[in-house]
Amino acid sequence: MTDQRMLTGDRPTGKLHLGHYVGSIANRVKLQHQYETWLILADLHMLTTKNARSDIDEISGNARQMVLDSLAAGIEPERATFYLQSAIPEIGELNTLFQNLITVPRLERIPSLKDMASDASKEEMPYGLLGYPVLQAADILCVKANVVPVGKDNHAHVEVTREIARRFNHLYGETFPVPELVTSEVSTLVGTDGHAKASKSLGNVIYLADSAEEVRTKVAAMYTDPNRVRADVPGTVEGNPVFIYHDAFNDDPAQVADLKERYQAGTVGDVEVKDKLAAAINRFLDPIRERRAAFEAQPGLVDQIIVEGTERTRREVQQVVFEVRKAMGLAGAYNQLRRKAERAQKKPATQT
């Protein structure tokens, strides 16, 4: 195993879906053999948009589902360390220290933050959401990650991490690696309703845990060419969600090419195109379903994976925080005060 590290993860807001798979999970599965792998269950990030008590009560259950999805998708438990972000308070300390290495105008230039606020129906941006990339920098640098596989919408966030790492190293000495971005071949996946992005909050996703029947139902309802009112009308393939999913998940390229040709010629109906897409997605998901069932059949395994990973990560982060405080001189400041206070206590009282 290399000593190079990879850090990535998701907010525990529910099960993972095909958009997650193409955006980052496929890369995680591939890269776990090249890097020491750390996967964060980012519940503190979740609080920036979902912080009701009812949301918080769902964290543990959602975390379990996300780990199950990751293992089912091909992450090997012996190769990865899963950890719950909120159980490591030292990450918050790093976040506080990093806040002073970036400016508000720099964070305000990140367009995805405004999109996140809008998706969460926030009329004004919470302070925590504006600082989302700074906390993300703490996540990445707390284990000194070298690479970060993320979807397109997180590129700007990781660039903030790179800036903070360089700034810290410049001010206090070489402490952190400057992590590299690893992008996926399909960075984002369109929603089944034709929306620009597949999103749990919009309900336009196919989950990795969906049954074969659920997949068929969702595919049958997928948005397609709105101008195609009959099967004999030539249709548009470019930008058509059904064909975007065919390209991403159909393991029979000859079938996809034939469907595209006939669709553009007006010699195939939407029903056949969708039926073959549903079959293709189910072929893709079948081995994932089998692995998920195998892990689910081991009671307590996922909880053990999360707890052991969290405890291991906290030990790592505590060492990094010690190095950070030492590099900054913060450890010495209090030690000087303490030593002087101890000397004053030992000094004999002046005789009158």
TrEMBL record:
InterPro entries per record: aa-tRNA-synth_I_CS (IPR001412), aa-tRNA-synth_Ic (IPR002305), Rossmann-like_a/b/a_fold (IPR014729), Trp-tRNA-ligase (IPR002306), Trp-tRNA_synthetase (IPR050203)
The protein's Enzyme Commission number: 6.1.1.2
Keyword Manganese carried by entry: no
UniProt KW keywords: Aminoacyl-tRNA synthetase, ATP-binding, Ligase, Nucleotide-binding, Protein biosynthesis
Gene Ontology annotations for the cellular component aspect, listed alphabetically: cytosol
MF annotations from Gene Ontology: ATP binding; tryptophan-tRNA ligase activity
Reactions accelerated catalytically: tRNA(Trp) + L-tryptophan + ATP = L-tryptophyl-tRNA(Trp) + AMP + diphosphate + H(+)
Biological processes, Gene Ontology terms: tryptophanyl-tRNA aminoacylation
Top-rank taxon: Bacteria
Keyword Ligase recorded: yes
Coiled-coil parts of chain: none
Stored PANTHER family: TRYPTOPHAN--TRNA LIGASE, MITOCHONDRIAL (PTHR43766:SF1)
Family stated for the protein in its record: Belongs to the class-I aminoacyl-tRNA synthetase family.
Protein name in UniProt: Tryptophan--tRNA ligase
Organism whose genome encodes this protein: Streptomonospora litoralis
